[in-house]
Amino acid sequence: DAGVIQSPRHEVTEMGQEVTLRCKPISGHNSLFWYRQTMMRGLELLIYFNNNVPIDDSGMPEDRFSAKMPNASFSTLKIQPSEPRDSAVYFCASHSGTGGGLTEAFFGQGTRLTVV
Amino acid sequence: QKEVEQNSGPLSVPEGAIASLNCTYSDRGSQSFFWYRQYSGKSPELIMFIYSNGDKEDGRFTAQLNKASQYVSLLIRDSQPSDSATYLCAVRVRFGNEKLTFGTGTRLTIIP
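Output (structure tokens, whole complex):
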């Protein structure tokens, strides 16, 4: 398996523009997570899905952020409109959801977002 | 109080010595605990997990869990320069809830 695949790897956009980040989880994994990582705040969970259903979106910072998972093999995180403070590395992770909570989450390579 | 707290470091350890990384968590009901390693510019990767009180060893790595003190640690024996990275502690509150909460990480540097 190719692992969790994220695109794009790097994104530079102007303030006010819409940004869409994409994620393909590992085949067979039924839990998907979106994290944001900054130096100041570390790795923050934004939202996670189980069986394509959003379970916890309490980490989504505000209404400008939205996430979807239309099927088991694809998820998007959208920021509209983007602001400079959204600049961060965004990670997508997936895991199989079995094993009684002991399975590891596998991370994608991340998308480095810069909003200027 | 943050859900998962770590000393941000940096922590510098001579090559061959033992590196000790610490983590505390706020939810007493937390069930499973993970240590991830993240090299600069890379994504986190799992080193090991632990869910029972006591020690768990895997090669040069030992995870220690004390649920009464809400404390989990990672020991790295015979530290190597390749161990230089940021180490992230993560906590899963309960089995069946997949939410994984991370600490801010401790940056470890092994000095040759």
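The first strand of chain B starts at residue 4 and ends at 6.
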